[in-house]
Amino acid sequence: MEMILPIFFIFTLLFSYSQASVVDFCVADFTLPNGPAGYSCKNPADVTVDDFVHYGLEAPGNTSNIIKAAVTPAFAAQFPGVNGLGISSARLDLEVRGVVPMHTHLDGSEILHITRETIRAGFIASDDKVYYKTLNKGNIMVFPQGLLHFQVNSGEIPAIAFVSFSSPSPGLQILDFALFGNDLLSELVEKTTFLSDA
Ligand SMILES: *[C@@H]1O[C@H](CO)[C@@H](O)[C@H](O)[C@H]1NC(C)=O
């Protein structure tokens, strides 16, 4: 009895723990208000397999723009199943000479996986050292969290890549928009960038 009682209690404890505390997922519910930690969780009883499947990366993005490129995100905002899981994805389409301009994801590191053609990609470390490479189909490259990076199609046909992030909402800030597409007075932009208005 002296041995059996503690063992019984341990099993009871383990069983009730696994029943009560394990949360497998937190599918984002956009109909509920956001909390400080992000999206609210959808009621697990209403979750279906379709919450864990996303079709938005099947089709190429629209590259009829000045950068000749499209980034199609599958972040928590588009793919509620990744909410709370620390991961997300996106698709890159780059026309010939298309560019994903210098940008950063403040909340996540990135792995780029080339699936078509050749992409020149790189990042700038916080000591301003540059790391870049020309990548071919099947190659992958990692971009550490928060660092400025870019991708350029250096091939002869449109390029495709898929990216994975270590965050369900990695964010995206494009350097040129941050510097020149903001509400600051031109005078202040000139002063703080040492560039002339022209
Ligand atoms: C792609 O974007 C361009 C420019 O915004 C637009 O004119 C065109 O209709 C779009 N194409 C498709 C297929 O959505």
Automatic annotation (TrEMBL):
Gene Ontology MF annotations: manganese ion binding
Keywords recorded for this protein, A-Z: Apoplast, Disulfide bond, Manganese, Metal-binding, Secreted, Signal
Keyword Disulfide bond: yes
Binding residue positions for Mn(2+): H103, H105, E110, H149
UniProt signal peptide: 1-20
Binding site for oxalate: H105, E110
Cystine pairs: C26-C41
Subcellular locations according to the entry: Secreted, Extracellular space, Apoplast
Principal subcellular localization: secreted
Source organism superkingdom: Eukaryota
Domain Cupin type-1: 55-198
Family annotation (SMART domains): Cupin_1
Record protein name field: Germin-like protein
Matching PANTHER family: GERMIN-LIKE PROTEIN SUBFAMILY 3 MEMBER 3
Family under the similarity heading: Belongs to the germin family.
GO cellular component: apoplast
